[in-house]
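Long-time lurker. I teach an intro course on protein structure, and each term I like to show students one example going from raw sequence to a predicted 3D structure in token notation. This year I'd like something fresh instead of my usual example. Would anyone be willing to generate the tokens for the chain below so I can use it in lecture? Attribution to the forum is fine with me.
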Amino acid sequence: MKILKTTYAAFICSLYMTITSAQAIATEPLKKALSETSANVVFMRHALAPGVGDPAEFQITDCSTQRNLDETGRRQALFIGNYMRDYKIAFDIILSSQWCRCKQTADLLDMGSWEEFTGLNSFFQGYADRTDTLKKLQHKLDSLPVDTLVLMITHQVVINAVTKISPASGGLVVYNARTKVSKEVKLKTP
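-- Reply from a regular --
Happy to contribute to a lecture. Here you go:
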């Protein structure tokens, strides 16, 4: 009888943990979207950097010639990073555009090490070639293992070119690189 009670108690605990875990996924929008789409990529538009485009004197290696995160953008990136850690959302790979506002976002997220990737650069004003950029990105997407979760910090024009979704600054779009299904995820940020 004691073995039966122990087995029953273990079953109830296991069931409770499964239900609780399923409820957490159902209520947390990013995990829910990842689950619904079987996505292996999260595109993130860089955090808020007021303005449009970059100055005429733009140089990729000089942040002073670019549009950068303002205080609100820095708070936004910190919030999103904390949010992801709180909900135990972890990435196997983190890639960033070479633009300073994307790299600043990657640093402030503090989700782990990240690398620059030219396939995420902005072609909005022609500082990067659209065809070349999207070709590199598609090659990367095609080569990703299904069981790998990748965060790609980039620009609205890049995300829209791949997903047909234009997220706000700090916005997220989950993407399944095999089925090409995407879904926007809106987090309530400060």
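Some talking points for your students: The CA atoms of residues 12 and 129 lie 57 Å apart. The first helix runs from residue 2 to 27.
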